[in-house]
Amino acid sequence: MPLDPARIRAEFPAFDEPSLQGQAFFENAGGSYTSRQVLAKLDHYYRATKVQPYGVYPASIAAGEAMNLSYERIAQALNVTADWIHFGPSASANTYVLGKAFGEWLKPGDAIVVTNQDHEANTGSWRKLAKLGIEVREWRVDSQTGRLSLDALDALLDTKVRLITAPHCSNVAGEINPIADIAARAKSVGAVTAIDGVSYAPHGLPDLAALGADIYIFSAYKVYGPHQGIMAVRPSLAMELPNQGHFFNDSKPRYRLTPAGPDHAQIAASSGIVDYLETVAAIAGDNVTGADPYRRAHAAMRAQEIALATPLLDYLKGKNSVRLIGPDDANLRAPTISLALSEPGAVVAQRLAKHGIMASGGNFYAWRLLEAVGIDPNHGVLRLSFVHYTTPAEIDQLIAALDVELR
């Protein structure tokens, strides 16, 4: 493993919290622990600059500068310019605002492609456009594997398609989708891409220039930051979409697609996410390669997670009582591992808690995906999700608990 778990965990105050000792955190897909870099900036903002930003007096100027830094630093980590970045209350809120903007931009008879692999926030918001005369085409998963096939996408494409939406990674199936290939197909028919990165970003912020996506949406609180949504939107597209904010802010890119202003302190604290990624790259050292600290952090986090996930997946492959949703190869997926069981997932999660395993069960807003693979969404799955700060000992703790509680 390229990352020393002790050095990584030293960056997270949660691991020193007495009440969490002995508790192995396997619900990271619902939100990760917050890094010390983020917490320090959040604390400083509330203590020193909790005023209206972008004013003329020193505290207000400092508040605005702290917020501006987050736009610049998040853009730097994503390999785009700062005018791509938009902060909103949550990824779901951002997506629904985008859906409304596209509803005003598209014309009746235009077509969009949605998947049934998505979290509902990145499919329901787009499906509502059908009421406006937009043709909605569903890119469907394989009913056995939950996988999206590029051949199935190709069958849906023609010059009527203006938008393709898809997850970078399913929050239940876990498989990492080939976004660069999807974006290339979109461009070939004159369409744009809106990618839900909420379940992928915790495992390494992507290089958006390499992906080629026009919109990329993720949650700051799942990438070791505060509870906000971040979206990167190609600036030319952002200015072409109808203004969703106050009419007098039409010429201000930051205000056009986020009508509900998010918490200023949390925006300012988000630059700490990038500081943390640079720390990860430094801890990895020569164990990984990459063009910049963010690509090296990405490579280190993925390598760490693959090493951690492999013994768990090997164990699960030997359990006839469970059905793994998504691939059993750790190289093809994020470590968000969902199991279909005879019992409801939430019931098993409750029993795992007795073993110090913090996990969860349910449908996780992937209602359509569970139906597509033959699982009652009300029954749900057991979801075990972790990130690079998980330790081999915690994987062993989880396997031991599963050995007792899986029936």
TrEMBL record:
It comes from the Bacteria. Residues 25-398 form the Aminotransferase class V domain. The keyword S-adenosyl-L-methionine does not apply. The keyword Lyase does not apply. It holds the Pfam family Aminotran_5. Keywords: Pyridoxal phosphate. InterPro entries: Aminotrans_V_dom, PyrdxlP-dep_Trfase, PyrdxlP-dep_Trfase_major, PyrdxlP-dep_Trfase_small. This is NifS.
